[in-house]
Amino acid sequence: MWPLYAAGFTTAFGAHGIAASLGGEAHIPLLVLGGLLALYDGAEVLLKPVFGTLADRIGARPVLLGGLVSFAVASALYVAADSPGWLWAARLGQGAAASAFSPSASALVARLNPAARHGRAFGGYGFYKSVGYTLGPLLGGVLVRVGGLRLLFALLAVLGAAVAVWAALAVPAVPPLSKARQTVLDLARRLADPAFLAPTSALAAATAALSVGVGFLPVSGRAAGLDTVATGAAVSLLAATAAVVQPRAGRALDDGRLTTRTGLAVGLSVTAVGLACAMLPGLTGILVGAALIGAGTGLITPLGFAALAASTPAERLGQTMGAAELGRELGDAGGPLLVAAVAWLASLTYGYGALAVLTGLGALVALVRRRTVPAVPGGEPQR
Question: Do 148 and 160 meet the contact criterion of CB atoms below 8 Å apart?
Fold first, then answer.
């Protein structure tokens, strides 16, 4: 499991570390910066379902290893050729490589653990991704200040190669399972099933709130007259809270003290309250909002992935995880776009409020569904 956790850390560290560092480069025009940031996420949106399906067909381990090696090679491209054109190529290559090893790692987390330990497994996986999100902007900024972007890309090349070697030595081969032929209509029906839509929608909402917190809480801090240390502490508090909550939520699920439906509803509710608190002026609203957004997203993430793993045939795990990761990427892009659009029309306070209302409606739907879904004889209705 440790190489899989390291793969989760790698994709999170690489995504946020470079994004934050590019934003600090004064010589990069805003239009170019927007394109470089969108390039990584755009590759993931297009390719994660493709690589997830490929993992089901040939096995998740080869796709994981190929993605990690490709990530190292793409990072090394910019180290070898320090030019704007190669920066675009490296960023695109990193996004495509992450599209391969991220859903493959999620599928292997599910395949290598019994259903009774899925909560713990995904809680640990989410914890190390949150650590990557936390350390990426901090360590990335230090590396760029010391040696420029090439030093950060060099570290990512070494990290990708090291995790690839570690995974090749430690992760066992998990052969693909035989499966019945699936038509496009069959896939559409499975992806439209509430067992897929409910956790994926919750994961998308959590990612939207997380992205909004990371991107806009510093804006609120500056408007309140806070310095960069205070606003940086708020973002770190958000990521650290999510990291602490995820393993505990996973253990509570496995021990039967929490169910996925209840946990997702509570997580969405806490996230909505956190976004509402971000509407309050001053440092208190920012810190309380950051802590609650982190707690809510930390509760949703392991429970959402565990629910997907529990409702998916083992031979289709890669495809499901790839589609769920696509949902998260759409939330990652859609949340900031919604808040920015509302802020442009009214103010940032109303932007937080709009996303809080949508997230709260998601919690309400989850609660209503929890009360109306009948129990399955001999099964566990709440999971």
Answer: no
pLDDT band at 380 (very low <50, low <70, confident <90, very high): very low
Return the closest-CA partner of residue 216 out of 269, 301, 285, 267.
285
Give the per-residue pLDDT at 229. Answer: 62
CA-to-CA distance for 212 and 15, rounded, in angstroms? 15
Half-sphere exposure of 272 (CA within 13 A, CB side): 17
pLDDT tens-digit profile of 107-140? Answer: 898 888 888 888 888 888 888 888 887 787 778 7
| Maximum alpha-carbon separation in the chain | 63
Distance CA 317, CA 49 (A): 11
Give the separation between CA 302 and CA 207, rounded to whole angstroms.
13
* ∠ CA 106-201-319, rounded to 5°: 35
Cα three-residue angle 95-62-156, rounded to 5 degrees: 40
Which whole-number Å values give the CA distances from 301 to 120, 168, 214, 325, in the listed order? 12, 27, 17, 11
DSSP state letter for 380: -
- Global pTM? 0.74
Position 83, amino acid: S
Q: Report the amino acid identity of residue 281.
A: P
d(CA 21, CA 106) in angstroms, rounded, equals 27
Distances (CA, A) of 192 to 108, 162, 205, 211: 24, 39, 17, 25
Report the candidate in 32, 107, 28, 30 with the shortest Cα–Cα distance to residue 67: 107
Residue 105 near residue 7 (C-beta atoms within 8 A): yes
Residue whose structure tokens are 């508090």: 237
Q: Contact 174/112 with Cβ under 8 angstroms?
A: yes
